[in-house]
């Protein structure tokens, strides 16, 4: 990997049209205080509170979240799932038909989907056979068009954390944005990269309410980065991207962190048990290590096992056509009863 000189300021990485554009200014942007009568946003005066537009910047949620994550609320962006943040990052920093993102393979599919929608080139680099970053392959792949490197840790669909030292190496040497997707970090032994934001102005950390927090149906994703990066995302997002109900329920969840922590403990306990049971099956070739709430397992014939489970009304993810994942199933850790039914079914295969 080439030696990085000085890090350019973030605005030098942003697409010019995004940097110079004037953002939409909503009624709720213009007036921020407390009033008694609101006649500024053409809302229906009945059916309170959902007759009102939500807070465009979700300050109540961000304040609570900031305290938990030990970060400034101004360094948080909230979106309609982390998928919104992925899309906005690509749109803000990558010029269509010109720039590229670098992804490791196999990984989460949304990075390349969002890139392709925006006519942004995708530069894939294969992970090592033990699913870690191949540092030697990076400099052969990225070039002057590479604006963002996406690293998913713990990685989906392999389940493991990427090596912290290698991620730091990428952060030190690459001049563009390094986005670390930590959707599964609550299930991992390693700490979040949020604590490293102060040191690396090109670092972006993604987390989500969809996994450990148990709120996939609400669609709420978190993005942590420098104030410069966050203000660019705020500039181009839809004005009211997170609805009132989602903000209320997220706040409830954040005020009861213990509930989430107890789920995580239980899921990790069940993960250990499920891995042991999977290892004993005659069809199992290899159970891969997991720092997430799912397990990647290589079996003798993954499509056949998938089909058999389907007939037993149990759905897992057949990942056998994914790079490096031949004959692999990705199995989410369920309740003890669900995991027992899965194992029982597989024992009878
Ligand atoms: C599940 C998942 C997400 C979550 O996406 P949301 O849009 O927040 O639901 C993000 N990244 C990875 C790698 C995931 O597996």
From TrEMBL:
Its cofactor is pyridoxal 5'-phosphate. HAMAP family: HisC_aminotrans_2 (MF_01023). Homodimer. SUPFAM superfamilies: PLP-dependent transferases (SSF53383). InterPro entries: Aminotrans_II_pyridoxalP_BS, Aminotransferase_I/II_large, HisP_aminotrans, PyrdxlP-dep_Trfase, PyrdxlP-dep_Trfase_major, PyrdxlP-dep_Trfase_small. Its EC number is 2.6.1.9. This is Histidinol-phosphate aminotransferase. Residues 47-346 form the Aminotransferase class I/classII large domain. It is an enzyme of class 2 (transferase). The gene is hisC. It catalyses: L-histidinol phosphate + 2-oxoglutarate = 3-(imidazol-4-yl)-2-oxopropyl phosphate + L-glutamate. GO terms for molecular function: histidinol-phosphate transaminase activity; pyridoxal phosphate binding. The keyword Amino-acid biosynthesis applies. Keywords: Amino-acid biosynthesis, Aminotransferase, Histidine biosynthesis, Pyridoxal phosphate, Transferase. CDD domains: AAT_like. The keyword Cell inner membrane does not apply. Pathway: Amino-acid biosynthesis; L-histidine biosynthesis; L-histidine from 5-phospho-alpha-D-ribose 1-diphosphate: step 7/9; Lipid metabolism. The modification N6-(pyridoxal phosphate)lysine is found at residue 211. One of its GO terms (biological process) is L-histidine biosynthetic process. Belongs to the class-II pyridoxal-phosphate-dependent aminotransferase family. Histidinol-phosphate aminotransferase subfamily.
